[in-house]
Specification:
Blueprint lengths: L3 H16 L3 E3 L3 H17 L7 H12 L4 E2 L9 H12 L10
Antiparallel strand pairs: 1-2
Helix pairs in contact: 1-2, 1-4, 2-3, 3-4
């Protein structure tokens, strides 16, 4: 199971990469779906039937960083992609929506 709020969290991270001035082409919707699939797989491997925000955070760099196309100013920086993802994780917060019962 993956909660709707977790989908929104993954989308928020990807959207951040598309708005970052260091990035020409950010994480695509397909990249976001890959991040969700990896989070689900991580949950299964750990014996859980649900994914968590920590699953998203843990795998975001591995799943998203190589998909970014950077601007010329930072393209030569080997750590720039990782820094973009770290910035996204630091700025996008996971907020569990409280829904009325």
């Amino acid at each position: 199971h993956i909660d709707t709020d977790l989908y929104e969290y993954a989308v928020g991270i990807s959207e951040f990469t598309r708005k970052d001035p260091r990035v020409l082409l950010g994480a695509s919707p397909r990249a976001t779906l890959s991040l969700i699939q990896v989070a689900k797989a991580a949950a299964v491997m750990e014996g859980r039937d649900y994914a968590t925000p920590d699953d998203i955070r843990h795998y975001a760099t591995a799943v998203l960083a190589h998909r970014l196309v950077l601007s010329d100013e930072v393209d030569g920086d080997a750590n720039a992609r990782v820094e973009v993802i770290k910035s996204a994780l630091g700025r996008v917060s996971y907020r569990k929506a409280i829904r009325p019962v």
